[in-house]
Amino acid sequence: MTTIADPRSSHTTVRRSGPNLEKWGWIYMRVSGVFLVILIFGHLFVNLMLGEGISGIDFAFVAGKLANPFWQWWDVLMLWLALIHGANGMRTITNDYVTNAKVRRVLVWAIGLAAAFLIVLGTLVVFTFDPCIGLTSDSVDFLQELCAA
């Protein structure tokens, strides 16, 4: 009788005590996926279906949206969930296909650092966005009214 070796048995680890991070990562992927579908379709509906549609999306539209705390938090929540969701997926793929432990560890750290950097940068952009920077005399009337206040 021929037996087949356990796949990737060279780098399997023994279950340690404490929280099962793989289980919580799996649950996060399902829950965040549901929320992302709601957030993304809401984002697309507001931006493309309401108002003037795609032709109405310009700098003034984005500036107006990012001036509203509701839309700031909507966009930040979508950003956080999407980046963590994507990073967790990349981590899972890396764990499945990279057999060298040191390379796998470096790649997982690189994925985590890249996601953390993008989350911080994106959050700063959303909450510190100022449409009045670089305002000139020939700017759009909407911006002149907004920046005068």
Automatic annotation (TrEMBL):
Keyword Translocase annotated: no
Pathways per UniProt: Carbohydrate metabolism; tricarboxylic acid cycle
Membrane topology: Multi-pass membrane protein
Domain of life of the native organism: Bacteria
Keyword Repeat: no
Described purpose of this protein according to its UniProt entry: Membrane-anchoring subunit of succinate dehydrogenase (SDH).
Descriptive protein name: Succinate dehydrogenase hydrophobic membrane anchor subunit
Upper taxonomic lineage: Bacteria, Bacillati, Actinomycetota, Actinomycetes, Micrococcales
